[in-house]
Amino acid sequence: MSVNDQNGAALGQAFTQNVIDAMGPKTDPRLREVMTGLIRHIHDFAREVRLTTDEWMAGVEMINQAGRMSDDKRNEGQLLCDVIGLESLVDDITFAAAANSTTGLTASAILGPFWRQDTPHRDNGSSVTFDTPPDGEVVYMHGQVTDVETGEPLQNASREHNLRGIFHTDDQGKYSFYCLRPTPYPVPQDGPAGKLLGMMDRPVFRPAHIHLMVQHKGHKSLTTQIFDKDCKYLGNDSVFAVKDELSVEFVPRKGDPLAPLELCYDIRLAKAS
Amino acid sequence: MSVNDQNGAALGQAFTQNVIDAMGPKTDPRLREVMTGLIRHIHDFAREVRLTTDEWMAGVEMINQAGRMSDDKRNEGQLLCDVIGLESLVDDITFAAAANSTTGLTASAILGPFWRQDTPHRDNGSSVTFDTPPDGEVVYMHGQVTDVETGEPLQNASREHNLRGIFHTDDQGKYSFYCLRPTPYPVPQDGPAGKLLGMMDRPVFRPAHIHLMVQHKGHKSLTTQIFDKDCKYLGNDSVFAVKDELSVEFVPRKGDPLAPLELCYDIRLAKAS
């Protein structure tokens, strides 16, 4: 009658199957697939490491604390996933599904926990830097958004970036703006994700990067990050988002009093299916 | 130099190994063991079900919401674990480790998300029921706390229960009080755990039960629940805590104007190691 017929019955797979089988017939098929996998792996994990009540409760408290400090400007639950590589993994899975057999498509990377919905629209060629620090290096960033298969320039594609602005490509699919050469920074250490990094004796830095989100009607949206190939943290990103094909080089720019550096980055989008 | 040498590298086990290997040498050995298992299983889960960014983000939002509604009277992160059977599983693992080869030890069960630290001390024979509802049935509950191996009665063991009180056993290890016969109740449905239960098309009820936490100096503490064997939800507890040996029978009590029912429940504790 009960699910545990003797002490320790939960230690066997029959208990796990019982939890899975508890899902009713009205469960959405995809949710059933996801929850079945989640329940099986979480149970196997607990059994394998002989997880104790105290250890599990420490994990619960970490989750509750992450939720309490999350708001519309910071997502600590997401950061917890990031430091164990989950967002990068899920991003790759989603990208692989979108890419299919297409080659040349600009690679995706994680959105990260600091994206904001209220980013302002700006004109091409304008600057997103308000307070350039004494050691900051201004960069003229530009490029072209094209269809990955036809090479056709995509007009009115919008680009947002993290310091932050939305730009619209011209009739040649081109965009341009001034920004700062990014610098490495540590992920926030005042929450459970930072605490976990400390407990795992891991570097807290993210390599210097620029976030890109590119949207065009009729094409699949792209969320990615590009990384300064000279950054020393490229090999130990605390959230595991670095990909070789997303590493870029900032080169000297001549004849522009506004910026000593330049970055040209073209973007290739896939047609929406 | 980077961890992902090509598109989709995170889809392979090398990515997962890289995340695991990122743990530094100062990581506590047990934490390394737990995190290695967690990272491996969470990654395998994501790969197996081809978890998408949108699905993962829905999970993150569920975790953040659980944290936001948790406080010292309610633990929604815990309840999320409970509905996928994790607290019961971890409890069994911990109990198995405590029980070793001892037979006869009173079985443990989950603490649940509503335990409170401020439970008052009360005299044996007193009542914990303040407002008996018209359809409520008063029960005289009593029993003896003994050492599981020697049978020796344990004096000054303290018992807490959920409606709620702390009682101290007498020199015979005996306790007694009046309470209500428990009734089934639904887990809270205003949070992500209740929402998840709904999405999984599962019953939300917990079978009628009484929480027990028994502590005695020199013996291992016991946290458990006992279940009314006549309850119709015994076979589909929403948090999978029911065990046959924790099912109890409420029997008629004669000659006591205060209670028509009686429950005798003896408890056997193991010596602290």
Automatic annotation (TrEMBL), chains A, B:
Domain Catechol dioxygenase N-terminal: 28-101
Keyword entries, A-Z: Dioxygenase, Iron, Metal-binding, Oxidoreductase
Name of the protein this chain belongs to: Catechol dioxygenase
Domain Intradiol ring-cleavage dioxygenases: 157-269
InterPro entries to which the protein is assigned, alphabetical: Catechol_dOase_N, Intradiol_dOase_C, Intradiol_dOase_core, Intradiol_RC_Dioxygenase
Organism annotation: Metarhizium rileyi (strain RCEF 4871) (Nomuraea rileyi)
Cofactor: Fe(3+)
Protein family: Belongs to the intradiol ring-cleavage dioxygenase family.
Keyword Magnesium attached: no
Gene Ontology annotations of biological process type: catechol-containing compound metabolic process
One Pfam family linked to the record: Dioxygenase_C
Cleavable signal peptide: none
Domain of life: Eukaryota
GO molecular function: catechol 1,2-dioxygenase activity; ferric iron binding
